[in-house]
Fold:
Amino acid sequence: MIQSLVDGILTGAIISLGAIGLTLVMHMLRFANFAYAELLAIGAYAALVFDVLFSGLVPVLDTAFAPLTLSGALALATIIAMVITGASAVAIDWLVFRRIRAKADALSMVFASFGVALIVRNVLVLIFGHSAQLYSNDIAFAIVVSRDPLLLIKPDQVFVLGAALALMTGFHLILTRTTFGFALRAVAENPALAQVSGVRLSTMITAVWMIGGGLSAAAGVFYALTNQITPVLGHNFLLPVFAATIVGGIGSVHGAVLGGFIVGIASGLALMVLPSGYAPAMPFVIILAVLLVRPNGLFGRDES
Structure:
């Protein structure tokens, strides 16, 4: 049970990073973006490309930071991948969602997001193929933390959890301690009033896409660092990320973080009582339970 709990916390940290941007987009633009999770895959593959590029151009960067499998090349590639993924999110909004937003309702944007998700996924397949890929072929040995009960943890997992928490803390400080954060929250709460106060709505929308894309890219890289990269990476995280957003309450960053950990831990513990094939259904169960008991989520507010 302890092992499943630890694995669930690690997965929850990754889900939380993805859910932060989604909850802001859903609250600000008022539509469910089913293409959002594909940003995790874009970030993971972008980091893979630049990792290979930096390793070839500067071989010394290919050395891993022992005992991690993370290398200097991958660390730099992750930063660039966050920028590229944020820019990709902005480009998708500019090319697709912004145009639909000006002419149609939110339901049309939801249907469009399904199409965007399929396009992104198939473009990744076209470029990188169906086969799984790894950042490093080095074998990462787990450390025996406890033998009774048995608890194994890899150094990469500790790094991923610490880095994810650091990113969440940094974003929290930006939201609560800076003028930009106040403006972002104002636009999310009441776009019309924020515009009257001098906040440029278009700038805030771009910022939300950039931030959401960057955090999602980090989530994709962190997951791939301890697992594999595949074109369906985003598809596999779609339900967990949405479940975390709904559990926490749409528009609540703190709720998205807590919801991510709840979904991750619940999915990890579910493996103890359910066959592995049924475990992916856990986000569905969580979504239904929250909608029945508290439709607005743990930190959501009734805006009716």
